[in-house]
Amino acid sequence: MSVLATRPEPAAAATTRRRPVLRGVEGQELVLIGVLAVTWVALSLATDTFLTGGNLRNIVFSVAPVALIGIGMTAVIVTAGIDVSVGSQVAVVIVVVGKLVRDAGVPLLPALAVALVLGGVLGTVNGLLVSYGRIHPIIVTFGTLNVYRFVSLQIFGNEQVSGVPGTFAVLGGGQRGQLLGIPAAFLLAVVLGALMWCYMRFWPTGRHLYAVGGDPLAARLAGVSVRRRVVSAYVLTGVCAGLATCVLIGSGGLVQQNAGAGLELAVIAAVVIGGTSIVGGRGTVLGTLLGALLVGTITSAVTLLGWSSQLTNLFIGVFILIAVGADLLRERRRRSR
Amino acid sequence: MDGSGPGGQGDVLLRATGVEKRYGGVRALRGVDFEVRAGEVHALVGENGAGKSTLIKIVSGAETADGGTVTVAGTALEPGSTQAAMAAGIATVYQEPHLFGELDVAENVFLGRELRHGGRVDRRAQRARVVELLEQIGLDPAIADVRVADLPVAEQQLVSIAKAFAHSARVLVLDEPSAILTDREIEILFAVVRRLRAAGMGVVYISHRLDELAQITDRVTVMRDGLVVAGEPTASLTVRRIAELMVGHAVGGRGRRQRAVDGEEVLAVRGLGRGERFRGLDLTVRAGEVVALYGLVGSGTSDIARALYGITPATDGVVAVDGRQVRLRSPRAAAAAGITLLPGNRKAQGVFGDKSIAFNISSAHLGFLSRSGWFDARREREVAEHYISEIAIKAPGPDTLVGNLSGGNAQKVVLARQLVEKPRVLVMEEPTQGVDVGAKEEIHRLVLELAAAGSAVLVISTDLAEVLELADRVVVVRRGSVVREFAAGATQADVLAAAAGDAGTTPGGTAADPTSAPTSAPTGAGGTP
């Protein structure tokens, strides 16, 4: 993997007051684009199967749920929070919506609305506990991770939900879920990601997310409604989890009790690899989408190359450490001046 | 109390009348009157605890007064609301700039009041406005796009002033703006302040560096013990006179009586320096002697402390203990060299809050408290109990968690830790910061007893009364260099004037005021056996 030798960050920007090369694209994002390009070229040369329509479709489809939730998670982590309950949120939504479409035959749009609203409610609970309860986000969401999992298991009632109809097939991995040959779920993630990127970059309330994560007290003194911004980030994450759930049940069939288990780690990995600082105040959705793509690419590559799938964990782990290390180095360099 | 209104041609912009504030039993403000006129720079000076920052917090809405009124241009200000104060045109720039590192300068200036264009942040308009502002202030307009985290602290501070400027503030409060700036940066700051004054703004300028006041301020208000003791045109005051007003007349000789210290030289520092922070520091401390290093905030004394502790090692000079040269590269190295440290900022550096008193005292002496390799828990308790009674730590017993103690008592625990094995050299930074009066006296008594028992003690403090109470010699540091040395019995006004930059002070020479020495006896300071 020659990519690992790539510098985590260009040596630019030490003391020079330069404007970004590409407006709005940050250093770490350029690096990620480079790493992705190198990996893809290397894989197309090394295997016959990588650069095929089917495989690329597989990769981007499998990335979609992580990317979708990552959009909300980026906002949460930028406010110096974290949401580890997203996997359990998915579990609650998947069993409720799965049973609705199977037992009550609810059509696509109402079912979608239920998924989004239910996800939003679960996110609101997190947001209110974090901002008004003044409990550390990791504790709050670790608590709700278990509570939501319990709730979903109660609704499952000791059995998996089988025979779910293909109501969400337009978001699924099959033929019907494609638009111009591209999985619609991935396109959805890209469109929503672009909207969110604009929001966090151009809208006052979006910029305030960075202020809240950077220095909450100063943000309050500057007239930012800190609590409202924090709650909004968790609500958005819940809505995104609801949407990601629709993608997960898109192909119909079986919904299992362990749905969404461990998903939070994949999402946080994508966000962190994408350059969002875990202490808040910095990060972009573009980075998160690239991070999700990189994780998906690695997973696919390890399979295609016939390597042990355990290596996937190793590579993702190494990328997280490089990303966090680059973040720390940058901070230290600033401090030392 | 106000003298003749000096540059008082402008209208009164800000007026505080009879402002009172209590914190628990402490009367921080006892009926303070204060006013700022348009087009004047008004200095607010006083010792730590005189009430300056409380007054500023009330004026800027961060605190609510218990009595009195604040009006801005004749309109009463809603108390306890920073929003209301800002809306009325009061902008406060604190010493530490509150900015957002990941946002660029233009965004920081407009944060919370963004210029909008169809709902979006109008970056172009914001940028144009900020470039204009930066040009007015004399900063490089190109930094409008630079992330604040990439700017030096000094420029960050000027950015916060630009921010106040952008929101059409009428009164600008600068809380010790120069403490963290270099001389060149201070010049830029002054140019900005003069421009604001010319534009008809009222500026409140808080500073400990009294030599600056003549350069930049029109009027000086001196506070002491929660009262305004003087308000006069700057031109009619000297640094020396301001220093006297700050410390009051009653305190002529609280200092120690001079006594001969003839122990051998234990700590010797030659030419110690670190970059621009401090340089050329020469210092000796003899066995049985207490030497105080006194300087205002930002003078470099805390950097010297950090160098002696090995936290941020010095780059130049040598340190010797008992004639043996030592390299203080880490706190561990300092300890190995025989230097015992009592760091400032106890909450963060000194204690294990969730551990017992006994644990905290014994933690530095595990070898000392062990017998043939086994830790002796009973002796740990005995030692802890001994110090609880010896220095009157107010706690039920050795098992009490230090986190549950008051600041003063936690401080005593940290001090006790340093006393278990009698230190050869004890370096203390702000030993009584945030400690009540009773605890302060106990700690002072202990320090003097230690010295009497033969330790060499170096006290680094910004507390003038403490310095004079403890020290056999006071070494005054200003802008990173030693400017003067006083023998015991110097007056507060002398020492303060030297530290604050009285041009009249000649370097070197001891200036013990002989008339004050005899009155200094009954302060519990005569700690010789």
Task: Characterise the protein shown here.
The complex is a heterodimer of chains A (337) and B (529). Chain A has 337 residues and is mostly helical. In chain A, 67% of the residues lie in helices and 3% in strands. Chain A has helices at 27-46, 53-78, 86-104, 108-131, 137-156, 184-202, 204-214, 216-221, 226-248, 263-273, 285-304, 310-336; strands spanning 161-164, 178-179, 182-183, 253-255. In chain A, the strands form two sheets. Chain A has a two-stranded antiparallel sheet with strand order 1-4. In chain A, strands 2-3 form a two-stranded antiparallel sheet. Chain A is globular, with a radius of gyration of 20 Å. Chain B has 17 helices and 24 strands. In chain B, the strands form six sheets. Chain B has a six-stranded mixed sheet with strand order 6-9-10-3-11-12, sandwiched between helices. Chain B has a six-stranded mixed sheet with strand order 18-21-22-15-23-24, with helices on both faces. In chain B, strand 7 (116-117) and strand 8 (120-121) form a beta hairpin. The two termini of chain B are 47 Å apart. The chains are: A mainly alpha (337), B alpha/beta (529). Chain A binds chain B through residues 13, 17, 19, 202-204, 207-208, 210-211, 214-215, 217-219, 221-224, 281-282, 334, 337, and chain B through 82-83, 86, 98-103, 107, 111-114, 116, 119-121, 123, 140, 142-143, 145-146, 149-150, 152. Chain A: It comes from Kineococcus glutinatus. Chain A: Keywords: Cell membrane, Membrane, Transmembrane, Transmembrane helix. Chain A: It is found in: Cell membrane. Chain A: This is ABC transporter permease.
